[in-house]
Design goal:
Length: 220
């Protein structure tokens, strides 16, 4: 299911190779320690399709976690030139170092302190967001860059849209999701977190990803 205010810039449909790549990375990482927050197979397939179509050379990943998305990007058949990955959690940093620092020495750059990133002339064809996003990083999104957001991250997308607008730029985020689940019962904690209460929803959009490209801002 595709949702979005504007027409998608590209027709993005994962092919068999994207699904196989996404499944193999997801299955492998789901078994690893600390895998509770990894990207969904669905989002990985769409990211694989995006990389196949736009062929990015320089990619920035924000919130690399234990490296599921990093692995998908570094192992992608359309070989990217360089992946810069931001991660601040100690457990994840050690995991990423063990996994990628030697195996992908020439193509993987781990950034543990995002304040050290020099915004200046750097250009990333693609920025992938699946973690803590500092608004200063919006300046790394330039005309033509693509942005991939795993899950929903509504407040992050709003910050990006607002910050780009200040620079006379826009982004046409389009949502790719796994459809809608109707009449769903679940549980939630009460306000004081003392009791577990039932929660009913008429419909819930199943998690996916958002993808957009930065363009000049056109006035209505
Ligand atoms: C949604 S997770 C990122 C997952 C990552 N993209 C992946 O697919 O492997 C967002 C953030 O949660 C934190 N995180 C993820 N896994 C963690 C773990 N096992 N232990 C502690 N923090 C974790 C990291 O700081 C990470 O940037």
């Amino acid at each position: 299911m595709i949702r979005g205010k504007k027409k998608p810039i590209l027709k993005l449909i994962p092919n068999e190779i994207d699904w196989v790549h996404a499944r193999s990375v997801h299955t492998c990482y789901a078994k690893k320690s600390g895998s509770q927050h990894i990207a969904t197979e669905f989002a990985l397939a769409y990211l694989s399709a995006l990389v196949r179509i736009i062929r990015p050379k320089y990619v920035l990943e924000i919130g690399a976690g234990i490296g599921t998305i990093s692995q998908l990007l570094l192992d992608h058949p359309n070989k990217i030139t360089r992946l810069a990955a931001i991660e601040g959690n100690c457990f994840c940093i050690e995991t990423l170092k063990t996994r990628f620092a030697t195996a992908f020495k020439e193509r993987f750059n781990l950034i543990t302190d995002p304040t050290k990133i020099e915004i200046g002339e750097q250009y990333f064809d693609l920025i992938v967001i699946d973690g803590l996003f500092e608004s200063k990083l919006c300046d790394l999104l330039k005309k033509g860059s693509f942005c991939f957001v795993e899950g929903s991250r509504k407040s992050t997308r709003k910050v990006i849209i607002d910050k780009l607008e200040n620079r006379n730029l826009a982004i046409n985020f389009v949502n790719y999701n796994q459809g809608i689940r109707y009449f769903e019962w679940s549980t939630k904690y009460s306000d004081g977190r003392k009791r577990i209460l039932p929660k009913f929803r008429f419909c819930r959009i199943l998690k996916g990803c958002w993808i957009g490209q930065v363009t000049p801002l056109t006035m209505p």
